[in-house]
């Protein structure tokens, strides 16, 4: 199968778990941008979107991300799972990326993204760990290329990713797709930028121990997901979020590729959204789009909600 071929038929997931719109060919539409007042509310909403999607299609192929932004999303999903509100037993997951050059094993090295996922999510929910996938950045040097190709094949064999969760780096990266990553790039080993070193090295005991390479899904791989869900929070992301969502599409900012996807949702807190020009439009659309009715913070008073 042509790896660049995009699937155009999908199931539109409606809140409340009702698939009332099965097998429609997706029409071109704009990206949904949802701004919540606080980071906690943005994280909770993101977790709810994920949980609702899984509840609507239990054999869900879920693309996952790591990073500080996702920690509370996973904490919320753990709570929902423990409360019986979401069942991960048939979910198959694919993580975006993994460092290349860490010592030991992915399971034991505390800096690995496999460790992050086990620690924040997989160890606490009823997912079958055999169904969880993280790129094999721990493969021997001469097997990295084959490991990246195998990862693409695993996603394809699973029938593709239903929804890919994304964060955004200060460099504008999604996954570890640093500036100049081709929009058709696939899973591969990349070298990280100075901006990403400055962003992530404080998380290492010794900052100089942060690897400067990673294996990441490509921008093209991310665009193949049937749905994209990007979460960004806090002031430090405000400039890059504005450039990614309202700026011109450019490989200098990988996250601008979201503008090319026809089923992308972006969830922000007020701080991360603070540099957006058209916030009022996004709020109005969110308040009035029936697809988001179940996610409104307060009960509808009139059929035409005013954006706050
Ligand atoms: C992580 C990933 C990265 C992060 C981004 C933001 O798997 O793919 O793109 O989402 O670097 O990281 P935080 O959330 O730490 O600001």
Q: What is the fold's blueprint, element by element?
A:
Blueprint: E1 9-14, E2 18-25, E3 32-36, H1 39-56, E4 61-64, H2 68-82, E5 92-95, E6 97-100, H3 113-120, E7 132-133, H4 144-157, E8 163-166, E9 188-191, H5 194-200, E10 213-216, H6 219-224, E11 227-232, H7 238-246, E12 264-269, H8 279-288
Parallel strand pairs: 3-12, 4-5, 4-8, 5-7, 8-11, 11-12
Antiparallel strand pairs: 1-2, 6-10, 9-10
Helix pairs in contact: 1-2
The chain binds fructose -6-phosphate.
Residues 65-69, 96-97, 167-169, 173-176 line the site of fructose -6-phosphate (F6R).
Keywords for this entry:
single chain, 308 residues, alpha/beta, seven-stranded parallel beta sheet, three-stranded antiparallel beta sheet, 12 strands, binds fructose -6-phosphate
Descriptive account of the structure:
- Helices cover 28% and strands 19% of the residues.
- The chain contains eight helices and twelve strands.
- The chain has helices at 39-56, 68-82, 113-120, 144-157, 194-200, 219-224, 238-246, 279-288, and strands spanning 9-14, 18-25, 32-36, 61-64, 92-95, 97-100, 132-133, 163-166, 188-191, 213-216, 227-232, 264-269.
- The strands form three sheets. It has a seven-stranded parallel beta sheet with strand order 3-12-11-8-4-5-7. The chain has a three-stranded antiparallel beta sheet with strand order 6-10-9. A two-stranded antiparallel sheet has the order 1-2.
- α2 (68-82) links the parallel β4 (61-64) and β5 (92-95).
- α1 packs across α2 (68-82).
- The longest helix has 18 residues, at 39-56.
- The radius of gyration is 19 Å and the shape is globular.
- Residues 1-28 and 299-303 have low confidence and may be disordered.
- Fructose -6-phosphate is lined by residues 65-69, 96-97, 167-169, 173-176.
- The site of fructose -6-phosphate has 14 residues, from α2.
């Amino acid at each position: 199968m042509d790896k660049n071929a995009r699937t155009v038929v999908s199931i539109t997931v409606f809140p409340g778990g009702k698939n009332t719109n099965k097998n429609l060919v997706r029409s071109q539409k704009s990206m949904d941008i949802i701004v919540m007042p606080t980071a906690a509310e943005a994280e909770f909403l993101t977790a709810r979107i994920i949980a609702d999607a899984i509840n609507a299609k239990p054999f869900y192929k879920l693309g996952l991300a790591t990073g500080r932004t996702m920690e509370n999303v996973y904490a919320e999903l753990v709570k929902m799972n423990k409360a019986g509100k979401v069942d991960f037993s048939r979910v198959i997951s694919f993580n975006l990326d993994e460092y290349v050059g860490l010592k030991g094993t992915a399971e034991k090295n505390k800096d690995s993204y496999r460790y992050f996922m086990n620690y924040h999510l997989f160890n606490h929910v009823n997912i079958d760990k055999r169904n969880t996938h993280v790129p094999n950045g721990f493969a021997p040097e001469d097997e990295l290329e084959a490991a990246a190709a195998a990862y693409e094949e695993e996603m394809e064999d699973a029938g593709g990713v239903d929804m890919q969760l994304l964060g955004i780096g200060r460099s504008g990266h999604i996954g570890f797709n640093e500036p100049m990553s081709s929009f058709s790039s696939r899973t591969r080993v990349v070298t990280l930028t100075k901006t990403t070193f400055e962003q992530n090295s404080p998380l290492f005991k010794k900052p100089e121990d942060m690897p400067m390479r990673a294996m990441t899904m490509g921008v093209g791989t991310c665009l193949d997901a049937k749905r994209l869900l990007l979460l960004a929070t806090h002031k430090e992301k405000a400039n890059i979020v504005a450039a990614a969502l309202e700026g011109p599409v450019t490989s200098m900012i990988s996250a601008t590729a979201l503008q090319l996807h026809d089923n992308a949702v972006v969830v922000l807190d007020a701080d991360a959204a603070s540099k957006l020009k058209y916030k009022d439009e996004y709020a109005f659309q969110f308040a009035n789009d029936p697809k988001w009715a179940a996610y409104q913070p307060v009960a509808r008073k009139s059929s035409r909600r005013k954006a706050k």
